[in-house]
Amino acid sequence: MGYASPMTSVITRFAPSPTGRLHLGHAYSALFAAEAAWRADGRFLLRIEDIDAGRCRPEFIAGIEEDLAWLGLLWERPMRRQSQHMDDYRAALDRLGRRGLLYPCFCTRADIVRQIGASAAAPHGPDGPLYPGLCRRLLPEEAARRQASGEPFALRLDMAQALAQAGPLVWRDLEAGEVLAEAGLFGDVVLARKDVPTSYHLAVTVDDALQGVTLVTRGRDLFAATHVHRLLQALLDLPVPQWHHHRLLTDESGRRLAKRDKAATIESLRRSGMTPAELRRMVGV
Ligand code: GLU
């Protein structure tokens, strides 16, 4: 795995998942990333986060390119598509595995719900209840037997071990300042899913390093995820970028814009006659 060498120039990226047409919130995020690079005379990259084969569709990738080009954005070619880089994620998993930080988890969603229901106090993290740890306690022979028998499994990070190996970590957000990394809030996160041999946390961390991203810009909804990314960087010996988590756009009633709000897609606004300049004014970039 050859990681890009640290560079002084600013490299930003926009990293959408092609599960629908881009909406106004995406337009804001893409413009925010591109402007940050442009102001610093840096580079702006596009990355397609399409590890979820069941939800991602090629026509949405074409839609992303069309919408960004219409907005007047220029990104460096070729864009990276995560689905074409599973070897890179495999290599990162091997590395974590060699450090004794991964374990196979055979639990189904129903198993996890049952375990949580059975425990007196189920701790919650930013993504919901924490994994109660049943498979962390499996005997190695038992785990190996179930793996060999073809039972599907995810790979989870042994968070307690990972935190012990990495020690205290901080990261820098351009608005929030220095932030103490609290990856432990997430418990034993999944790094390779049963259906996909990677996960959002792993792929985003590996890719930002491989692409030499120096400033990760994205919405505040992903602020807490950065705790996990900072930990993975430390465990994988990756360069540490800066972050800028930006505000989230809301509709008139204060609700966060989401993919279900069809009216707010860039495509529909374009079709209704809006110009790129008007859209920029609307989102305030
Ligand atoms: N693919 C993620 C999304 O569409 C964004 C990932 C990131 O910026 O780190 O929400």
Describe this structure as you would to a colleague.
- Helix 2 (58-70) links the parallel strand 2 and strand 3.
- The protein is an alpha/beta fold and 285 residues long.
- The chain contains ten helices and twelve strands.
- Helix 7 packs across helix 8 (225-236).
- It has helices at 24-39, 58-70, 86-98, 109-118, 140-148, 159-166, 200-210, 225-236, 266-271, 276-283; strands spanning 11-14, 43-48, 80-81, 102-105, 124-125, 128-129, 154-157, 170-173, 177-180, 190-192, 215-219, 242-246.
- The model has no long low-confidence stretch (mean pLDDT 94).
- Glutamic acid (GLU) binds at residues 15-17, 49, 204, 218, 222.
What descriptive keywords fit this protein?
three-stranded parallel sheet; Rossmann fold; 12 strands; globular; Glutamyl-tRNA Synthetase, domain 3; three-stranded antiparallel sheet; 10 helices; 2 domains; binds glutamic acid; 285 residues; alpha/beta
Q: What is the averaged pLDDT score?
A: 94
Rg is: 20 Å
CATH class of the largest domain: Alpha Beta
Helical content class: 25-40%
- Which ions, cofactors or small ligands are bound in this entry? glutamic acid
Helix and strand sequence: EHEHEHEHEEHEHEEEHEHEHH
Looking at the overall shape, the CATH architecture of the largest domain is: Alpha-Beta Complex
CATH topology of the largest domain: Glutamyl-tRNA Synthetase, domain 3
Number of domains: 2
CATH superfamily of the largest domain: Glutamyl-tRNA Synthetase, Domain 3
Uncertain residue ranges: none
Q: Strands of the largest sheet, in order across it?
A: 1-2-3
- Percentage of residues in strands: 15-25%
Number of strands: 12
**Number of helices, counting only DSSP H or I runs of 4 residues or more:** 10
Shape: globular
Helix/strand-derived category reads alpha/beta
Largest sheet: 3 strands, parallel
- Alpha carbon gap, first and last residue: 36 Å
